[in-house]
Amino acid sequence: MTIDWNDLSAQEQTALKRMNRGRYPDLDETLAKRLIVLGLAQERASGIGISRAGRELVIDVLLRARPDRP
């Protein structure tokens, strides 16, 4: 299942952006479980972390938001 950025709630988008920067210890458990089911996060020994698919989604959104440079 392919997830588009606009398919995510504002909370899910914010969580992924924070997880992309590193550990997010305040991540709500229900939100974490949903991101795992969507394949955008995964359980690790150190806690919940962003998955490769989640990271690619966030990076794609961030790159699209950059203005074109001459």
Biggest β-sheet: count, sense, barrel? 2 strands, antiparallel
Structural class: mainly alpha
Number of domains: 1
Return Rg in Å.
Answer: 12 Å
How many distinct beta strands? 2
How many individual helices? Answer: 3
Q: Helical percent range?
A: 40-55%
Mean pLDDT: 92
Strand percentage lies at: 5-15%
End-to-end separation: 36 Å
What string, H for helix and E for strand, traces the elements in order? HHEEH
- The rough form would be described as globular
The largest beta-sheet arranges its strands as 1-2
Please mark out the parts with pLDDT under 50 across 5 or more consecutive residues, or reply none.
none
What does this structure look like?
The protein is mainly alpha-helical. It has one domain. It is 50% helix and 11% strand. It is built from three helices and two strands, in the order ααββα. The protein has helices spanning 10-21, 29-37, 52-65; strands at 41-44, 47-50. Strands 1-2 form a two-stranded antiparallel sheet. The chain is globular. The mean pLDDT is 92.
